[in-house]
Design brief:
Blueprint lengths: L12 H23 L13 H13 L1 E4 L2 E5 L5 E2 L18 E6 L4 H27 L4 H5 L2 H26 L4 H38 L10 H25 L3 E8 L8 E11 L3 H25 L11 H24 L5 H30 L54 H32 L4 E6 L2 E6 L2 H6 L1
Parallel strand pairs: 4-6
Antiparallel strand pairs: 1-2, 2-3, 5-6, 7-8
Length: 490
């Protein structure tokens, strides 16, 4: 009969059948008890406490052999039946409760090794550039690019690399408990001060070029390295004014966030992972102040790079390179900063890898962009000239060609004729600043030529015993020889 029915039969059907049969028996017994007091189930309502008491006592008296086995109930409503205990000798007996375990989130060893290796490569590159900048500091091309400021840029890059090492120690939970309590603010100080040192020094160099070539006054301007260092100290002071109160009043502390996982069916263990994060209830306001300050610093750098884009003296000006560096930094920051705040606490490894890679990539890229061209310039021996300038400028910068021994030409012994490649009378349209620069260069060349002519005149007179000499008459040099008669008269 069961095979011919259209309904499906499950393993729970016997219990359902026995439950319905038990309810029917208890209701029949309740009806008999109610008739003794002249009442029936048809008169039942939810305020009838007597009927409820008869139903409860009737269900406790139910006892029969059902489909699922013997059926009876205890005073608290639990079923009394046959229990089977099965023991498997191959496996331990199951536990009667869960075991709760708390562990810190395990770190990714591969990610740690990759970050440490990449960061070490960046440190080596920074030290190579530092050694090059120190050894060739007297080279005229390197000297004109302010080697001391270049060292500050490299120092800022090294501080950024140290910040990556500290971040790795925090992620892998290396170090003592005391260090672990202060590591949040240590990472913050290193990252922010390293950024200001590296890019603040870079922008200060471009600011000097901007001042020298944008001034319309004929008064000579001279901006020394100590003035640039003073500007850099002012930028660093702004950081200190933010980081100091932040550290004193609302320092970041590590907070433990516990997230419970599902129970393991094999071991009956409930694992709770502990994640750590540097937080404070007011940290958003301090972060906003730093982001605004660094954003303004980047905007200032972009402005200086744009204003000095026409100055093409690679040894003196890094404006084009700064523009490229700022472009990369802005793109990376625009992507990296939101990601660092959007990622959840459970994505600690991804956050560690992204922040470390962004820092290493930006710092190493900036150092390579700035110093690799200088490696090529160190062996160039050609004259340093202003081949192109801004639309406005002053006639003299922070240096005078006649006062710099490295910029003086050797004494001239002969001069080739000047060839004019354009029709006479056709004058190119030039600004006042460009004319001033050309006049300064021509004046220097005329002075060098006059010195060479005088030296030639002295040598010629000495070697010919004053027999042959020359003078400039009506714009032409005339060579003459004294006669023996004139010598006798003298």
């Amino acid at each position: 009969m069961a095979d011919q029915t259209e309904f499906l039969i499950s393993r729970s059907h016997p219990w359902a059948y026995d439950a319905a049969y038990a309810v029917a028996l208890s209701l029949n017994a309740t009806e008999d008890k109610l008739q003794n007091v002249n009442k029936s189930l048809a008169m039942f309502n939810y305020n009838d406490s007597l009927t409820l008491e008869y139903m409860r006592s009737s269900i406790e008296d139910v006892s029969f052999n059902g489909v699922s086995g013997p059926v009876s109930f205890t005073n608290d409503g639990g079923r009394v039946g046959i229990a089977y205990i099965e023991y498997n000798h191959r496996r331990p007996a199951p536990r009667d409760r869960f075991i709760y375990v708390e562990i810190y989130e395990p770190y990714d060893v591969t990610a740690v090794y990759c970050v440490l290796f990449s960061n070490t490569i960046g440190v080596i590159i920074a030290f190579v550039f530092l050694a090059f900048n120190t050894i060739y500091r007297n080279n005229r091309h390197i000297k004109m690019s302010s080697p001391y400021i270049n060292n500050v840029i490299i120092l800022g890059g090294l501080v950024m690399f140290v910040a990556v090492y500290v971040n790795t120690m925090d992620y892998a939970r290396f170090g003592s408990k005391h260090f672990d309590e202060n590591i949040c603010m240590v990472k913050l100080w290193l990252s922010l001060l390293g950024f200001t040192l590296a890019f603040g020094a870079l922008f200060s160099k471009t600011w000097r070029v901007h001042i020298l070539f944008r001034e319309t006054s004929l008064k000579k301007k001279c901006i020394k390295d100590y003035q640039l260092i003073g500007m850099l100290l002012a930028l660093t002071l702004v950081d200190l004014c933010i980081l100091g109160p932040w550290t004193i009043f609302h320092p970041l502390h590590k907070e433990e966030i516990k997230i419970k996982s599902e129970a393991d069916s094999d071991s009956d263990n409930v694992v709770t992972f502990i994640y750590t994060a540097c937080k404070h209830r007011y940290d958003i306001y301090w972060y906003a102040s730093e982001y605004i300050y660094k954003g303004l610093l980047l905007v200032f750098g972009v402005f200086l790079a744009w204003e000095t884009r026409m100055v093409s003296i690679p040894a003196l000006n890094d404006s084009k390179l700064i523009g490229f560096c700022v472009y990369n930094i802005v793109v990376v920051c625009a992507f990296g900063v939101p990601v660092a705040h959007v990622l959840s606490i459970q994505q600690t490894t991804l956050m560690f890898v992204l922040t470390s890679v962004f820092t290493i990539f930006c710092t190493t890229l900036v150092l390579c962009i700035l110093f690799i061209p200088k490696l090529k310039l160190r062996n160039e021996i050609g004259d340093i000239r202003f081949v192109k300038s801004l639309q406005t400028g002053n006639c003299s910068g922070s240096f005078d060609p006649s006062q710099d021994s490295n910029l003086k030409r050797p004494p001239l012994t002969a001069r080739e004729p000047v060839t004019v490649n354009r029709p006479v009378g056709l004058i190119e349209s030039k600004t006042f600043a460009e004319v001033c620069k050309e006049l300064a260069v021509l004046k220097q060349e005329l002075l060098e030529e006059e010195n060479a002519v005088n030296q030639l005149k002295v040598e010629l007179s000495r070697k010919t015993n004053n027999q042959i000499n020359f003078h400039k008459v009506d714009g032409r040099y005339t060579v003459f020889k004294q006669s023996e008669q004139n010598e006798a008269d003298m």
